[in-house]
């Protein structure tokens, strides 16, 4: 009898352990991997949006903030479920190659060229970004590039090309290989120029001794899209989670948050909501 009781107790313990483990697994939040740009992270926007999404959806979001190029490389390898990026030409290629589905317009801000207050290259008042980078090159003034295949880096390379200048290898041209916030810190320390999205610059302005010297050029538009990674390419992609996040980003509630983010602190929004707009309205 005692032997039977011991065996039964052992069975009960095992069953209790199994049920408990199953309950814990069921209660554990579902994981979602978001590959996004450093600008959405450095601006502080994700600090507001991610907790709201997690609370609403029950997902736990692992955010990996890298350049847009690196984010898409992760998508191509199946290392992310959903992307929030800002490199339109590369995004289109990503979609054509079948790595993404449901590319949707989320928001925009703009790029600006910043530099030290004494402005050694005399950029202040320059009307076009191409003219501005020519002045930097001809004056030999220090320019800090992210050099990381990000959306910002892709835009910067377009500026040099439009100006007919090969900056690579020049003494005045330095690549940090860092994100936007860190690159701005280096530019401030070295008193150099840099291309940045306005949102990150404004978020860090208190600790930077850099001024906006060139802005308003239509070629400096900075547009963000959300892209779900194609499950046909990678069967382990969290399809439901990716769609939930993408739907969340273009929802009316979140678009309103995006449109007011930064107003209380800077007197103007850091991003402008675009969900539902036709790409041609932004010149895309």
Describe the fold and architecture.
The chain has twelve helices and ten strands. It has 284 residues and is an alpha/beta fold. It has two domains: 27-107 and 223-279, 3-Layer(aba) Sandwich (D-Maltodextrin-Binding Protein, domain 2); 110-220, D-Maltodextrin-Binding Protein, domain 2 (3-Layer(aba) Sandwich). α7 (151-163) links the parallel β5 (143-145) and β6. α6 crosses α7. 42% of the residues are buried. Keywords: Signal. Residues 26-252 form the PBP domain. It holds the Pfam family PBP_like_2.
Layout of SSEs?
Layout: H1 2-27, E1 30-37, H2 38-42, H3 45-57, E2 59-66, H4 68-76, E3 82-85, H5 88-96, E4 100-115, H6 129-139, E5 143-145, H7 151-163, E6 173-175, H8 180-190, E7 193-197, H9 198-204, E8 211-214, E9 221-229, H10 239-250, H11 252-260, H12 263-266, E10 272-273
Parallel strand pairs: 1-2, 1-3, 5-6, 5-7
Antiparallel strand pairs: 3-9, 4-7, 4-8, 4-9, 4-10
Helix pairs in contact: 6-7
Quick summary of this structure?
With 284 residues, this protein is an alpha/beta fold. It is 45% helix and 22% strand. The protein contains twelve helices and ten strands.
Compute the separation of the termini in Å. 80 Å
Number of domains: 2
List low-pLDDT spans.
Answer: 8-28
Sheet with the most strands, sense and barrel status: 10 strands, mixed
Shape-level CATH architecture of the largest domain: 3-Layer(aba) Sandwich
Strand content range:
15-25%
How many runs of DSSP E, i.e. beta strands? 10
Helix content: 40-55%
Which superfamily, in CATH terms, is the homologous superfamily of the largest domain?
Answer: Periplasmic binding protein-like II
Say what the CATH topology of the largest domain is: D-Maltodextrin-Binding Protein, domain 2
What Rg do the Cα atoms give? 23 Å
Query: Given the C-alpha coordinates, what overall shape results?
Result: globular
Mean pLDDT comes to 89
| Distinct helical segment count | 12
In N-to-C order, the SSE pattern is HEHHEHEHEHEHEHEHEEHHHE
CATH class of the largest domain: Alpha Beta
